[in-house]
Amino acid sequence: MRYRYPGKLVRKRIGALTAANAYIESLREARQSGGGTIPLSARGSFKTSAQLAVEATAAEAAKVAAAQNGVLVGELCDGLLKELMETPEADHRTPPRRIARIKRELGQRVATSIQPQEIKKWLNSLRSESIYPKREESVFAPKVNPATANRLRTQLSAIYEFGRTEGLLPRAFLNPVRDVKVKKIGIQPTGGGRTAISGDFVMVAREVNPVLRALRTHGIEVEAMHNHMLFDEPHLYFMHFWANADAVTLAHGLRAAVDATNSKKPEAK
To answer: CA–CA separation, 85 vs 112, rounded Å?
Structure first.
């Protein structure tokens, strides 16, 4: 079945015709009464006012429980990992590695106690140190590039969102990761006027070819391009690049690539 609300076409698989008719009738009642939530995507679910009231009550109870008991980041990691491994179409290799790393570093911390500046400091330490100790003795890991640090940031944000969705964290609790920004481009001088750069661009489809041409024209190698999500809107493409060449040439190349996107230009002060 499909319906349009508000102005957006939504397709959903309901089942039998009677079930589809009942679903449509529920949507009409919710729209007329202003109660409930009408899904705007294929994966969204319709919820009545009564269901929303039950969820609000549960969220308030979770808020009190979180304040009293203090849910650990490690517990959230375990819950998200369990859900991930029970989802057949999910990536069972890369995200679990990132979740394990976050649990190793932050697992013993109470989730609601971690501040944005602490997360930023942790991510910066992963990029700035040659090696850094793990919680276990004599275990070390190499520094990560900015793109990897950004993926760890995204994974940590997903861990917090899982906690809120499952009622383990208060719904009113603000995800501390949302206020943390990490560099998308890594720059390292290599001597003789040369510089090594690595990073990635996130673009919509119409920006892909112009950015690709801008990078290659200036000798910047495109290592990979792929999607991270299936049903995102607008659909985003991730282009990873690397180069080790004349610093000025690379700077002009990055400038040209940025200009080929729809990025908002900073206002002159």
So the answer is: 25
CATH code for the domain of 174: 1.10.150
**What is the chain's alpha carbon radius of gyration, rounded to the nearest angstrom?**
23
What does the alpha-carbon distance between residue 157 and residue 231 come to, in Å, rounded to a whole number? 19
Q: Number of folded domains in the chain? A: 3
**The token pair that represents 35 in the structure block:** 């109660």
State if pTM tops 0.85.
no
C-alpha 215/C-alpha 267 separation (Å) is 25
Dihedral of alpha carbons 119, 123, 129, 131, sign: positive
CATH for 233: 3.30.70.260
pLDDT, one tens digit per residue, over 81-117 is 998 888 877 777 778 888 999 998 898 888 988 988 8
CB 112 within 8 A of CB 148: no
- Kindly state the average pLDDT of the residues 160-171: 86
| 78 and 170 part of one domain | yes
Q: What are phi and psi of 20, to 5 degrees?
A: -65, -40
